[in-house]
Amino acid sequence: AFASSMGGVVKPNENGDNTVTFGNDNVPYAKLSFKADSDAEKFYVELSTDWDDCAYGADFYDLDAYLYAFTVNPSIPATSAPILLLYNRFVDEDGELTVKPGDVTIYQVKKTGLTDVTSSFTATETGDGDPVFAIRTRAPGTYVISAQKVENASGRVTDADRAEEKRDAASKPASDGSGAAPGTKAVLPSFAK
């Protein structure tokens, strides 16, 4: 397990279960769980909740919404798609939900715009009873959990989305387990070397 305020370099336990928890002041925002492969290399992962990091932040101005912007470099060395939990932050000081999970819309921010991906997530609870939204993904991206819908979001996958997903798939780890795309070398921040 690796606890981080909002990110850092992770050296996974090879052939073992790994969990990265993101949060501030003992308040969890997200959790990434995966089983590492047999030749797991370290990788950098970060979560930003700063709206300045969101190209479509203005679309959520005056709305009740939370941003989860992940950066992963080079990739997560997992044997299968990791489980990403986004904590439902629509909770009051007594721990009661202020917005029902079924009334929430989850958007993924892509280069082509906002896409409604609510149906890709499952509303559930952690073992501690915390409400979360769960998805299996090899490439955590940028998500917005909103209590209201935005007008310019698309619920459909466009050709541009498919092209972006194809480019993302091409950058997945090589079959040699190095964590880098074929013909490239993984680059980590200087403090991780």
Q: What's the helix and strand layout?
A:
Blueprint lengths: L1 E3 L2 E4 L6 E8 L2 E9 L7 E6 L16 E9 L9 E5 L17 E6 L2 E4 L5 E4 L5 E6 L5 E5 L12 H12 L23
Parallel strand pairs: 1-3
Antiparallel strand pairs: 2-5, 3-4, 4-7, 5-6, 6-12, 7-11, 8-9, 8-12, 10-11
| Annotation, overall tally of beta strands | 12
Helical proportion?
under 10%
Average pLDDT score: 80
Structural shape:
globular
The radius of gyration is: 17 Å
Biggest sheet architecture = 6 strands, mixed
- Helix- and strand-based class? mainly beta
Number of helices: 1
Tell me the span between the first and last alpha carbons: 21 Å
Order of helices and strands: EEEEEEEEEEEEH
- The amount of beta strand, in percent, is 35-45%
Strand order of the largest sheet: 1-3-4-7-11-10
Residue stretches low in confidence (pLDDT < 50, at least 5 long) are 169-193
